[in-house]
Amino acid sequence: MSSSSPQRRRGDTRQRIQDIALELFVEQGYEKTSLREIAERLEVTKAALYYHFKTKEDIIISLFEDVTRPIDELIKWAEQQPRTLETKREVLRRYSEAMAAGAALYRFMQENQATTRELSIGETVKKRLYRLVELLRTEDGPLTDQVRCVSALFTLHAGMMFLQHVEGDPEETRLAALEVATDLITQAHHEDS
Hints:
mainly alpha, 0% strand, transcription
């Protein structure tokens, strides 16, 4: 499978439900979207939809788990690596790619922050971000360097969430944000000359 093609998730029907539901959640908002509307857009009965998912929360949680699996894998990998500048650059690069692959879900989460916090995924997102911050942060460095490390992570978020309306190619925007994030991490690891 090429890296440019979307990763196939388990079951075509399940994936279609997730994709259509996310499309509707982004268009209308999570609260304003009903299971009936999802079923209608899919051109299936509500009973057919219930076979796979009982609630909207079940749909969004399953989608979240599928799309964010690479981030969990990245965290596990990073925990086994030395806390070097090279490792931190790789964490940023891989995190940026994972966010790009799940762009629609991350936009949903940005547009529906209150809903995300209320759902069980909200706590998972928070814990994951705190863990990434700890993996990127300089342990004993000056406070300004620690802020640079934390800012590097959130620069990637800014590129994904807040620069999406900037003219140009979204991939160029992602790469620009990654370059700035990498610069911040590099500055935080300056060598004493």
